[in-house]
Sequence to fold (157 residues):
Amino acid sequence: MIVSLNTYLIIIGIFCLLIVIKPLYTRFIKKEESKNDAILLLLLLTIPINWFTPSILTITDCNNYTKEVVLFPTTKDGFKINYGRATYILNKSDRNLTFEYYYYGDNTPAKGEENKEIEPKQNAKVNVISIDYILSEPAESVSTKSSGATKTVLRCK
Fold:
């Protein structure tokens, strides 16, 4: 099942609200010490849910794209999509796309960081949670507390 990014964010918001409603009600409305405070730890579940819920970027031309989220493993346009830390890029445009890692400061390529060329009407899987710059140019520099940073870029050629 594939949903839009906005629908996914609403689902996650409702999930979080359902987790916190009873402990907050008990603590602030009933004014009681709550044994249910441990339930708030379930909010930590949203972290791996976001990490392992893949997204789909469908590029229609060099200026337009849609971002969707996969709730259950499925197939889209003959491309099998499973759970995992990945973004699937569906290039429906008539131009080549380039997925690149962009290094700032002292950062160097890590193991498994490979740039990809995606031909028109082809699909690709990249092992990142999200792409930092989609169909836009990356910043010349970024500020960080460390000596460097790595960003991801999806460009239209």
